[in-house]
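Deviation from plan, reported transparently: 2-(1H-indol-3-yl)ethanol complex.
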Amino acid sequence: MSSATSASKPDASGTTPKQLQDIPHLKLSDGNEIPMIGYGLGTANFKRGNKEGLDEKIINDTVTAIKNGYYHLDCAEAYGNEAEVGVAIARAGVPRDKLFITTKTSCNPGDTIEAALSRSLAKLGLDYVDLYLIHSPYWASSPAELQRRWAEMEAQRDAGRARSIGVSNYLREHLEAVFAAAPRHPPVVNQIEYHPYLQHDPDGGGGLLAYLREKGIAVEAYSPLTAVRRAAPGPVDPVYDRLAKKYGVTAGEVALRWCLDQGIVAVTTSSSEERLKQWMTRLPTFKLTPEEVEEIAEKGREKHYRGFWTNKFAEDDRR
Ligand SMILES: NC(=O)c1ccc[n+]([C@@H]2O[C@H](COP(=O)([O-])OP(=O)(O)OC[C@H]3O[C@@H](n4cnc5c(N)ncnc54)[C@H](O)[C@@H]3O)[C@@H](O)[C@H]2O)c1
Ligand SMILES: OCCc1c[nH]c2ccccc12
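Because the crystal trials were delayed, the predicted structure below was used instead.
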């Protein structure tokens, strides 16, 4: 099973806040380590339309995030901004081995994983990614297709072009299909929407979290701030507010800590430098007790909300 560590990544660039040393890392079942706060490029910063040329705002926001210690970047070919991220990585000047870069393949019909990863690496200006994910299982029409694609993912890990490989938005049934083929390199991560109003096991997910634990698959939570924003107001508000007051932080920081304190990586985002700084400096300074984690979970189970992979994506609420 993957486990949280406080392993630090000492930095040589001089741009890193001291607090980065305290951002926890999670040990994945393949032995690699992932920073438990990720900066997402898929909501506030995805590229709208088929715009030609580089979007300077995306580049600048990403440089700002990296310079504030967000060394784990969550990209995808579908976000249309890997070239901007590549420029930002080069401009930020942080050594490659200090960064943790994830991207995702859409598994478009007629495409191969090898070709998709080659395109992503070229845009990112990298020769490997730290984590390569299959963005969703919804392109597949049979278990055999999921198995064939997974074998292609394994080949990329063997080739050293993806240090770790995983999936996103997979339900238990999709993972069972992958495991039925006895993979040589099982998925080490499932990136899923996760917050108090979508805890999966009571959501028809068929014991997804328990299954992930059993298989040693780490959870990455995307949209961890849903209960303080898209789905607010709701039953967790008074608990978030009480704990925010207790720890001298914002409700958003309590929401992020709720993931970390369950050993779950939080993939969040913001284009506000002030907020990014606040998260990076304050998140390592407090911890929820197991009772507080459970209190939020219990209140969260009173409401259901899913923002992504419904028939309609969450409203565009870029901030
Ligand atoms: N794999 C997938 O299918 C998938 C789906 C959705 C998102 N993602 C990834 O996860 C990342 C994060 O997703 P998200 O944006 O939904 O995460 P999130 O829930 O953390 O929301 C982040 C947003 O909340 C805003 N915000 C932060 N603090 C706030 C506050 N106190 N009050 C109000 N608003 C506040 C931010 O400015 C930002 O726009 C994406 O960029 C993407 O990389 C992946
Ligand atoms: O991963 C976030 C959801 C998503 C899937 N495909 C996209 C394309 C653009 C922006 C977001 C998404």
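The pocket of 2-(1H-indol-3-yl)ethanol (ligand 2) is lined by residues 42, 46, 76, 78-79, 308 (CB under 6 Å). We consider this an acceptable substitute for the interim report.
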